[in-house]
Amino acid sequence: MKQIVVLTGAGISAESGLKTFRDADGLWEGHDVMEVASPQGFARNPELVLEFYNQRRRQLLKVTPNAGHKALVQLEEKFKVDIITQNVDNLHEQAGSGNVLHLHGELFKVRSTADENHVLTWKKDLVLGDFDENGHQLRPHIVWFGEMVPMLEPAIEIVAQADIVIIIGTSMQVYPAASLVNYAKLGTPIYLIDPKPNVNENDFESLTIIAKTATIGVPSLVMQLIDH
Fold first, then answer.
1. Exactly one of 31, 104, 118, 141 is catalytic; which is it?
2. Which domain holds residue 32?
3. Of 9, 89, 113, 148, which is the most exposed, with the fewest CB atoms less than 10 Å away?
């Protein structure tokens, strides 16, 4: 069975109504992202950081997977499918995808500030005074700027096995898609689904650009691959 590796970014979640991480000016409701997405920011103002993620968690509880997420599930009928996402939502899992690797963590999980391997499922607000059983403050299970990306090595190994790579809603010039795609075997077909692609098909070997949104481009490509 051929293996398809799908790299997804904010573009696919945005169509479900989730705000992308940064506004056009790089701010989130007036905050510099380093204030709300870095260890230093958390040390300076933990209440602000926790509220930033509380708002995102509340928003995630109100949205549902879109046609792009759902179409990827159909691929599993004919292919081995691994999804590597930089999104912290669980829309791929909600849609029914079986193998999802989160590069940047997950909104519906929290972890101990004393032990990064002590991870809990969490769907409500997280506030100061929410401790693990040893009395340590819990924090969002999110990879912040300046922190290691522990799932990067497993992601590289998965991409290296791919027979086909599909990139959705993330630029091929921005981490992680740009770096991960380089680990695919030479000649591996790569499909980029993005309404405003910032690369040309000549920029990468075996690249096909589908200049459409995820909700239109993904179902179309999935039908093509299944019928092939």
1. 104
2. 19-62+105-142
3. 148
